[in-house]
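2024-03-11 09:14:02 DEBUG pipeline.ingest accepted 1 chain
2024-03-11 09:14:02 DEBUG pipeline.ingest length=279
2024-03-11 09:14:03 DEBUG pipeline.predict start
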Amino acid sequence: MVGERARSKALKFYIPLALYLFFLLFPFYWMVNTVFKSDKEMYNLELNPFYIHSPTLDNIVHLFTKTIFLKWMANTFFVAILSTLIALGASLLAAYAIQRLRFRTSQPTGVGIFLSYLIPQTILFIPLAHVIFQLKLWDSLWSLVLTYPTFLIPFCTWLLMGYFKSIPKEMEECAMIDGASRVRIFRTIILPLCLPGILSAAIFCFTLSWNEYIYALAFISETSSKTVPIGLVTELVRGDVYHWGPLMAGALCASVPVALVYSFFVEHYVAGMTGALKE
C-alpha cells in the first residue's frame, strides 16, 4: 500500500517536476557549459558537447577586456532603476485613483489602461522615435528612461489595482472619520499594506527594463551608451561570425542581478501577482 502510494506520488508529482526543472534549467546549463569552453573544443564534433574537457577562462577575459561590458551593465542599471521608479510612481497614483476614488469613467479607464499593454512595442516605437527625435534625446539613455514606462505603467497599474482591491475600505473610512486626509491615508496606510504588490510591480518593471531590446536597438547607436542586450549582440556578432563564448559569458553575468532580485523577493512577487489575479 505504501509502495503503491509512493509510485503514484512519483508519477503525479516528482517525474513532472523533474521534467519541468530539466527544461527550465537546461538553457542555463548550456550557457555555463559554453562559457568555459575554448573555440577549438566548441567546434570539435568528435567531443561530447555536454561536457567541458579543457576548462578555460578565455571567454570571460575576452568579455571584460575586449568589450566595455561593465559600462553596458552600468547603463542597464541606470535605465532599469529610473524606469522602474517612474513607472511605480505613476502606477501607484493611477491604480489608487481608479480603485478608490471611483469617478464616472474609472472602470473603462482601468480596462483601457490594461488593453494598452497589449499593443506591440514594434508598433509603438515608430511614434516614440519621432518624440525622442523632437526632444533631441537620440543616443541618450534618457530616451530609454522616458519610453520604457509606456509599456511598464499599464501592467503595473492593473496589478496594483487588484492589490488595492484586496485592502478593506473600512480602514480608510475609519481614518477619514479621525480626520486624516486622503494623502496621509495613502502614505501611512495604503503604501505599507500594499508593499508586496509594490515589490511585485517593481520586480516586473526591473526585469522588463533590464531585458528590453527593441527600443534600445532603435534609439541607441553609440557603443558607450548601449545596454547589455544590445551591446552583446551588436559588438560580439560580426556578420555571420558569432563569438559564442563571450556572448554566453555576457548573458550569464547579466542574468545574475535579475536572479538575485527574484531569489530575495519571490514570496512578495507571488503575493502581489495573486492579489492582481483576484481582480
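2024-03-11 09:14:41 DEBUG pipeline.report The chain has a mean pLDDT of 85.
2024-03-11 09:14:41 DEBUG pipeline.predict end
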